[in-house]
Each structure stands twice: as structure tokens, then as C-alpha cells.
Amino acid sequence: MTIEELRTAYIKFFVSKNHRQINGKSLIPENDPTVLFTTAGMHPLVPYLLGEEHPSGTRLVDFQKCIRTGDIDEVGDASHLTFFEMLGNWSLGDYFKKEAITMSYEFLTSFEWLGFSPESLSVTVFKGDGEVAADTESADVWRSLGIPDERIYFLPRKDNWWGPAGATGPCGPDTEMFIDTGKEPCGDTCRPGCSCGKYFEIWNDVFMEYEKKEDGTYVPLERKCVDTGMGIERTAAMLQGKDSVYETEYFTELISEIETISGKSYSSSGNRTSIRIITDHIRTAVFILGDERGVLPSNLGQGYILRRLIRRAIRHGRKLDIEGSFLPVLAGVVIEQYKNVYPELEDNRAFILKELAAEEERFSLTLKKGEKEFEKMLPNLLKSKNPVIPGRTAFKLYDTYGFPVELTEELARENGLGIDREGFEKAFAKHQELSKKGADKLFKGGLADHSEMTTALHTATHLLHKALRTVLGDHVQQKGSNITVERLRFDFTHPEKMTPEQIQEVEDIVNAQIEADLPVTMEVMSLDEAKARGALAFFGDKYGEQVKVYSIGDFSKEVCGGPHVERTGKMGHFRIKKEQSSSAGVRRIRAVLENS
Questions:
Q1: Which residues pair with residue 558 across a beta bridge?
Q2: Residue 443 is assigned to a structural domain of this protein
Q3: Domain tally for the chain?
């Protein structure tokens, strides 16, 4: 079964089980500064798992593009990826453990669907502890389906528990499904979750049945939910009898192109890690750049991760003796592979190729400058009694010259030197605190919090959007937003810098609507009806069939997930603090709400 066939089969199966297919969301979570990227299929659905009603009902299914950056340094082995696709199905207060596990088993083992041998399937469940009892219910369901006790593993909280998004909230046990690859066990303690490669995890059913209270106790929830996730690439590898995700079709096509460009063979173990890293990183870079809320390479946040991935790919290209620009060629392969499923890649093809070429050019200059500076430092370093490059020196090469610490380590080894990596990490963590905090935290859903101020600022983005279209014209479209408790950030299409007079006029319009104390109302309707009634909706096919439309008096009508204030009168005084360029043809406004 190919990757495309797996994606199609999963959706078809759950639609046949009365699930409504919904569209996956952007890789860049909107209005949530606590996370940089969408990290799992459940990520955009957390507000609904926490109790909000979903416009499409209580049974949902989709596929979602995801990025996880915590394991960047592990990429190059058989299974780690930064970009991957996640298949997911959800029950929002509908079915629970018996139905979820039974459907999982049917899809995995039925010859009509994936056709895995039941004998190859092992599962894990929560063993319980002093706070929550063991999940014997899930184990009983697996037994009823024919999975024997010797292939049902009761594991602790670190293996089989999904915690709340914050210190408190909904949480619960999970059951994970593994395919036995047939390899010999690594020892007496070998079991699912072991890193030896015998067991390959492909699916996870999470059962949100408890609420963790402030006193640390767990109380059963009245509305129990199911959240599942199946990695497309990992499952396809098992279906195809492959030892690695890099042996599946999307990867082998890229690997072949890298072999052609570099003249190096993937079959040589000395080249394999670098080729895998390039393959993974170019996929991720293409999807970030091509996203409907795509970002540019930079030194902060998502842009920093993007730059790191691109430059790491270039560095490994150097290790394969690739000279000149090569990433745009590989990007073209990725776009062709995915353009039918993710049309935004084709829509943004020119932008993706241009930015990759520009970053390659910038980094070639960085390498020259950094290597020159390293050569200046080298004599004194070699004279030192302690042949170790201090962390602060390594960080200076990075911070001043953009020189990757991995390349500093490589040059250090070539000259018989070590490097104080811990010292570098401390300096780096301090400098990049905002990025490091956000990189892989669990998503809380919607806004970073639902406090009075963030809710008011979110409502203000609607007023700002409409005011900008009034002052600048209907070409203005939202391209993204980010909200914290202190301020809002709003990106929009406009070809030139706003004049002071235009900024003042926008402020005046927004404040007039606040002073008018307009009511904020919400209706659920089809996307077509929403557009027919004049609602703004600029994120294309990323909406579901049913959407929420928020109206602010007769002034603003927009498709949005919420939350919003009930009336505008107590929002405070709106003030634009800064208007600047975000990227080509996109402007950015930072604004605040102050006590009036």
C-alpha cells in the first residue's frame, strides 16, 4: 500500500463509521505563542477536546501536516522525522474505549483495509499508579478481540498517559499499537517502546476520561473523548515491509535525486546519514515556506527553526561534496509529490524556490566568514593548556557570524580540539529563550489562554481587519496573527508602508466601534452560506463544512474559532504601536488595548 493509498483508505474507513471528514490546519498555529508549529493531529482540535462544540459534529476524521523539532539531532536514523503527516479520528463525547479499540483493530487487521496479521500486533495500556487505577477496561477489549495476555503490556505513566495541556484539565490513559518486525529481542526486558527496532509503534488511542484538579486529584469526566493518531510514513513503512521510513516512495525519489546531484551512493553507510538529513530537512522547509501562513528564515521563532533546517541541509550537502545551489531542485521534487494533496505548495512554488536559493546564497557567505574567523582563533586555542573551545567562543561564532555550532564542532575535531557544548547551550538558551520555550510544548488550543485580555485582543483583530479594509481597500487579507496577554500582532496583505494618517484613521475606526459597545454574536453555518452573507474567510480549504461566524454589530462578520468578548464596550482604548514589513507584499501591525 502506497502512502497515498493509506491516506485515502483511512479517511474512507472512518467515514464509513459515521465520521465527518474535516480539513487539516496550518503548520503555524494561530493566536498561540506557546508553540511554534502544529505538532500532532490533535493539536488544532484541543479546544473541542476540552469541551467546545465542533461545527461538524462529534465524530471526526482528518489528516494533518505536522512538525516536531525536539528530535532534530536524531534525524538520520531509521524513523525520526521533523515533518510528517498524521491520520486521526476523534470522538467528542460520543463513543469511547470499546468502540475506538474495536475500530482500530478492524482497520489494522481486516484484509479489506490494512491486513496486518493479528499475530504481529502487540499493544500497551496504562498500568496504573497511586493516583489513577490501571486501565483494565482497554486490556479487556483487546482480549475480547483475540490479543493474548503475553502481547498486552501494562506500562507506567511515562509510556501510556496523556497529561493535561496545562497544570490542570482533561487527561487520561492511552493504548498504543505496535507491529512486531520479526527482529530478535534485544534482551529479557525487550518490549513495545524499546528502541532496538523489534517493535514499531504505528497508532495511539488516547482516552480523555479524567480531569486533573488543582489539588492534584483526578476526577472522572462526564464528557469523555477519544483522540487518536497514526503516523502515515511509519505505517506505510510497515505495510511495505521496509526497515525505515526512508525506504518508502516519497523518500526514495528524493534520495535518488541527491545521489544524482552529489555522485554519492546512499548504500554507503558513510553517506546515508547526511542524505537522510537532507531529505528530511528539505521536506520540512518546503512545507513551512509553502504553508498558507508560511514564514521566512530568520533568527527567531519559526523562522529560526526554518533557517536551522535549511542550513543543516546545506552543511550536509557540503559533506557530500555538493557545490553550488541544490535545494531548489529537491524542493521541486517535494512540490510535485504533494501538490495534489496540499495545493498551497504549487500555489507558492515560486516563493519557495526563491527563498531557498536566497538562503543558500546567504549561508555560503556565512560559511566563508565563520571559517575565516575560526582560523583567526585557532592559534590561541591550540596554545591553550585546555584544548577545548569555550562555549562563549562557540556562541560568538554562531551569534556574530551565523556559524552553526555543529560546524564549529566539526572543525574542532579536525584540529584535535573539543568544545564546551554545555557552555554554548547555556548561552544559546538565554539568547533564544522565546524560541526554546515554544519549540515543542503541548498546544493549549485557540488562544494561549482565555483570559479577559487575550480574548479582548482577539476580538480587536476582527475590528482591525475590517478597519484596514475600509482605509486601505478590499485587497487587504489577514495572513496570520499572534496574541499574548500584552499585545496583538496582525499580518495582512498590502504592498506599501502605511502613512501616519492611515494608521490614525484605522485607530479611530476601531475605537469608534469599541465606544459603540457593539454586541458580539456567533452562528454556525456552512462556509458557502457564510461567504454569501458577507463573512470574511481567507484560509481556503482549511475550513470545515460547518463554520462559526462571529459578527460584531453590523461592522464586522468573520469566520473564526473564537473566543470573543460579548460586547466591545469594555475592551479599552486601541493603539497601534508599530507598522512594519513582514515579508514581500505583507505588512505587520503590533497593537495594544489600554485602559481608557
A1: 536, 550
A2: no
A3: 3
